[in-house]
């Protein structure tokens, strides 16, 4: 191992496949790898054993995971408590509850060996058609999102888990999912500062340890995505005064990988000021070791030819080491979940008309293409929740004749109109963010998705 390799490894956060430590990952950890990011395929009942094995590779090894609550969680597979979506917390608008949820998630993470939760979402969901943020955001106004972002950070970090406010400088007004392509936000600088930055400023003021970047283009400030933009990252450092770890969103996402490329994107990100490069989820269709090597080798080549100064890598590595030191020193708090997530989901849920469907209902999911950030596997959550009450429940893309029908939607759509034209008796379950649209009765509005919300909807639908 060369000194350059250790410098490069110290800024990398790859994903890997399986529920054990692959040989290549063990070698990389021994060679100074900063840590790993866990995805759904890594998480199961044996998670504490896996994280203990990862931490045993070397002192300061970081384990990260997307733990936002609601639909974006990897820890559901461990059978732990279910947490509400951020939109439900914003709807309730009780910062003490939001802090308690953050503390519960933080305690759960710390107890399972996760050091860094890539949460909360600090994006202001200013665009109702946003395909990737939606209920992951606390709401549509800067003040609301700012106070709940700060509360979630306090709770999470108070429980000994580092937080990463995301996606800087804001992914809430996009029409495109950066997992698939490069979104462009055409707002002027004044709008960006007034609408998108306040939640990040609140997170920084609260002492957030990390900020995660957006693969979003803001032409008013730069012609490069924020993850690779010195002017935008300087805005975070200089204007907001952030001196913690800047984490990239995954560089295997379409906005980077299908544009400049994963390796060059990682080089540009570190050169621009990113301290920790999240490589991404190899379950999406590439070899885990090859994905890591592609990014590592690109950074090594950039150091070798002078494109990337060693001083920049050393600075980034120092911040990552300080983050690991904070985690080690932070007392691990305990939090009694006590069904908090379901209580929040129940408080914000509402029903119009008679929504009881009896036994043998069919669930038709009209929410559209899967949100890649969700990481969901298997059948729709509502169908699973109903089946725990009624084994005769069915689910699928076509309504089953003669059965009560439940339509799951994120908002209005031609598919919903068509389904209701044939079945006006169908119950509509709205899981999307609240707004001006009200689902046709009989209906349930949840202000969130995920296991906690599905359980509440199943209770309302079931008459058993």
From TrEMBL:
Source superkingdom: Bacteria
Coiled-coil region list: none
GO terms, molecular function: hydrolase activity, hydrolyzing O-glycosyl compounds
Record domain Glycoside hydrolase family 3 N-terminal: where: 61-322
Entry keywords, A to Z: Glycosidase, Hydrolase
GO BP annotations, alphabetical order: carbohydrate metabolic process; peptidoglycan turnover
Keyword Nucleotide-binding (UniProt): no
Pfam families referenced in this protein's UniProt entry, alphabetically: Glyco_hydro_3 (PF00933)
PANTHER family, per database record: BETA-HEXOSAMINIDASE-RELATED, GLYCOSIDE HYDROLASE FAMILY 3 DOMAIN PROTEIN
Family (UniProt): Belongs to the glycosyl hydrolase 3 family.
Protein name stated in the entry: Beta-N-acetylhexosaminidase
């Amino acid at each position: 191992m060369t000194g350059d390799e250790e410098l490069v490894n110290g800024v990398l956060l790859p994903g890997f496949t399986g529920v054990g430590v692959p040989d290549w990952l063990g070698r990389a950890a021994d060679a100074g790898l900063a840590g790993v990011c866990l995805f759904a395929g890594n998480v199961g009942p044996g998670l504490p054993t896996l994280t203990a094995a990862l931490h045993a590779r070397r002192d300061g090894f970081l384990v990260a995971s997307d733990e936002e609550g609601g639909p974006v969680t990897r820890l559901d597979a461990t059978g732990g408590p279910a947490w509400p979506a951020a939109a439900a917390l914003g709807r309730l608008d009780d910062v003490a509850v939001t802090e308690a949820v953050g503390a519960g998630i933080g305690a759960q993470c710390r107890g399972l060996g996760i050091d860094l939760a890539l949460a909360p979402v600090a994006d202001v969901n200013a665009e109702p058609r946003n395909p990737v943020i939606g209920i992951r955001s606390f709401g549509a106004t800067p003040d609301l999102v700012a106070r709940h972002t700060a509360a979630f950070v306090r709770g999470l970090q108070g429980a000994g888990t580092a937080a990463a406010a995301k996606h800087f400088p804001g992914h809430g007004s996009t029409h495109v999912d950066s997992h698939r392509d490069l979104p462009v936000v055409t707002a002027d600088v004044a709008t960006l500062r007034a609408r998108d930055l306040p939640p990040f400023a609140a997170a920084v003021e609260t002492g957030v340890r990390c900020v995660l970047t957006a693969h979003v283009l803001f032409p008013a400030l730069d012609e490069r995505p924020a993850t690779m933009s010195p002017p935008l990252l300087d805005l975070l450092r200089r204007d907001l005064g952030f001196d913690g770890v800047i984490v990239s969103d995954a560089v295997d996402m379409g906005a980077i990988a299908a544009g400049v490329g994963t390796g060059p994107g990682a080089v540009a990100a570190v050169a621009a000021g990113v301290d920790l490069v999240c490589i991404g989820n190899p379950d999406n269709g590439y070899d885990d070791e090859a994905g890591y090597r592609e990014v590592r080798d690109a950074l090594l080549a950039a150091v070798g030819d002078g494109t990337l100064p060693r001083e920049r890598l050393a600075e980034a590595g120092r911040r990552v080491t300080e983050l690991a030191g904070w985690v080690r020193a932070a007392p691990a708090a305990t939090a009694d979940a006590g069904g908090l997530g379901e209580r929040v989901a129940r408080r914000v849920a509402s029903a119009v008309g008679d929504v009881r469907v009896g036994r043998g209902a069919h669930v038709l999911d009209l929410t559209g293409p899967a949100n890649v950030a969700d990481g969901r596997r298997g059948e729709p959550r509502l169908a699973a929740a109903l089946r725990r009450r009624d084994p005769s429940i069915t689910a699928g893309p076509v309504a089953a004749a003669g059965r009560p029908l439940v339509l799951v939607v994120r908002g209005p759509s031609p598919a919903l109109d068509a389904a209701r034209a044939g079945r006006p008796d169908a119950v509509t379950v709205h899981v999307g963010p609240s707004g001006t649209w009200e689902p046709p009765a009989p209906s349930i509005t949840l202000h969130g998705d995920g296991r906690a919300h599905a359980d509440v909807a199943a209770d309302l639908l079931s008459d058993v």
